[in-house]
Predict the structure.
Amino acid sequence: MFKQQPPRLRLFTTSVFKWLIGVTIIILAIVSWLLIQNTFNMKETRISIPTSYGQLTGILTLPKQHSDKVGLVVFVHGDGPINASYDGGYRPLWEKLAMAGYASLSLDKRGVGGSSGNWLDQTMEDRAQDVLTAIEWARKEPSIDQDRIGLWGASQAGWVIPNIVKQDPDIAFSILVSPAINWITQGRYNTQQEMLQKGYTEEEITARQLYNDQVLQLIRNKATYDEYKLIANKDQLISKERWTFIVNNVESDATDGLVSFHSPVHLVLGGQDINVDVQETERVYRQMIPQSLLSVTKLPDADHSMLPSSLVHSTFKTYATALFSPRKLMDAQYLDDIVQFLNSIHAVDQPFVAHFRFPIDSFLLKFLRKMTQFDPLHPL
């Protein structure tokens, strides 16, 4: 016969068992919620495109259920070493597009993922050529409607997309989110606004601008990296690769290229953007693009990355939202606005409802870190 446990020990054992069951239920509930919130109604396929400079890899996203050909939105990244999904950050928009009857095509930048080369070796024209290569590839895909291939681009893409539409007059539409006009003036604006937000004095801001002007003069003179290091502030040192990238692209200006648009252009601007002077951007776009082609949406509570103002100054809230409710990471109006624009130019008979699910994206938080990183000499 087994010896009976004392009542106090039985009570302790029962309490521990109940506690373990409760903790297990809570963990399972959290995991289930995360899986539900981080799965998306669309079908993703990894792709590889051969080019004369090595392969380009990326992701093609399609509605799970479609009988006819679908439109295509080709994504043009902003600054930085960005992979095809922006570490998961693009997926809420891809899902919206898929449910509206559009595919999405996004590349890994050169040297990122499986793409050959190094994006820091590229000019804006080089970046445009990569996108044009992807579009040429997409036109051969049987599921893509060749008459509904357009572009979505953010920030630095504002210097790339005009190059693309100039060379490909069949681009059906262009969506530009937070694009800058001029590389140099954009950097000055961002420096001032960021320092004001952090509480720097006017004297400190002026001193920083004078230093940046010294660096800019070297850049415009195509000085060597060693010459730059002679005057560089050690806590703001730019890498050698980044220096070359800036030297090759510092004269970027979108103004003249905006006349190349001959199809609908949708401009999306955030009222809380401290990276780009959105008033200047809107003024120049309205000046250079015919009114019949241009539509503008201003989201007063959104920042440069379309984060809502409630998240902009709270790292904890931003991470928590990204993890537990990623579809709410962007401004509430932003995703709907993109779909409304597409519906206004290309009516779709019925929305596509997909049922394909994907596991949680383990790199989503990396996307958030990129969204908050900005250097005045490194425009996005």
Notes: The two ends are 75 Å apart (CA to CA). The longest helix spans residues 7-37.
